[in-house]
Predict the 3D structure of the following.
Amino acid sequence: MAKGLSVQTKANIVVAEANHSVGGHNQTVLLQNLHLNYGLKMIPALEGSHTAMDFLKTILNQELSEHVEELPPIVHGPNGWSPFVGFGDNAPSCADELAYYLQPKRYYLKHPIYTWNQALLGGSGAELLTQHQLTRFETENGLIKSAVLNGEVSVEAKAYIYTGSPIELLKYIPTLGEEDPKWRARLAKTKLWSTVSLNCVHKSVISEQENLYVLIGTGTNPTVVLGQFSDPILHQGKTIQSSQWLTFVTDEEANEEVQAQTLKELKRLMNKYFPNIFDKTLNEKVIIGSRSHGTTSLKFDKNFAMQEYPNLWIAGPHYGAAKNLIGAILQAQNNLLSLSKTLKSEEDPLEKSSKD
Ligand SMILES: Cc1cc2nc3c(=O)[nH]c(=O)nc-3n(C[C@H](O)[C@H](O)[C@H](O)COP(=O)(O)OP(=O)(O)OC[C@H]3O[C@@H](n4cnc5c(N)ncnc54)[C@H](O)[C@@H]3O)c2cc1C
């Protein structure tokens, strides 16, 4: 959005990032001197994917994908690995989150997704404040007056874009939804999911299948692990391979003990379907993706601007019909359209609202 806004308007843009680097759940993971994806990083061919990819291609001014390929996820049954067709009567509680990844077609990407961050940063014209965490929004007369970073730095702007989770938004604006407590309660109840994921570098090639593996545990509400192997890599004279695996825990369960149990089950399933895989593993890294998945049941207007605070725009994967990266990109597109119109128009959103 910053890149698009800087091209389409003359706005001064400040990006606040809590971490020491940008990229969030799309950063690269460095393991054995290899740059790996942060967990699975695939773009399924869903409704909306094409629009999202086209928009990003325009913003980045580069081709992102070669083509869409038919590559169904595979599951192990009595006759070995075969295309996944559904969970039948024993769907796990995170089935809605899994559905995004279980599509038979996906984009064959020209470059890994972590390179998109670097391309987005280049020439965005934005002032980037890393290690600056939003701690609250100050409000006045039905508008956001300033964003407070690290509890002390106050940034005043004509318009604000919030890209965090719905639940945290309530913390940053304690008065949000005062006029409609039901709306506030529904926002607070948004079901969010965190991921427990494992990145591995193996000593040798474990599988040459490019399909997404679906590993299903036992019992009701079974653990489901998704994973994939990279193409073999020639590294320091040896042919090795990396793999990425993930499973979901609900936000309420995401304490350290549950994460440890979930990781144990994830590894058990990997070992069951790929015997002794950990003996053939050079290095591994566990990553917890906090509140990375889930969607609020609330309807935001099509421009994702907050009706209560008209100079606050909302973006990210949690607020629209489309999920994950596709959802986040489509919202960036909608926000960009509405924001650049507002910023280019003579009418100041602050003026407009104080007249109302
Ligand atoms: C393991 C894993 C694998 C995934 N695989 C896929 C996939 O294959 N395909 C797909 O489409 N999606 C995938 N996703 C989901 C996808 O990564 C997210 O939908 C996407 O990253 C959302 O982008 P974002 O920039 O909105 O948020 P994020 O990537 O979550 O980034 C949020 C950023 O905001 C910063 N931040 C948070 N709070 C504050 C604050 N208060 N102040 C300042 N900064 C703050 C964070 O530090 C972070 O840098 C995956 C997610 C995970 C965790």
Notes: Residues 352-356 have pLDDT under 50 and may be disordered.
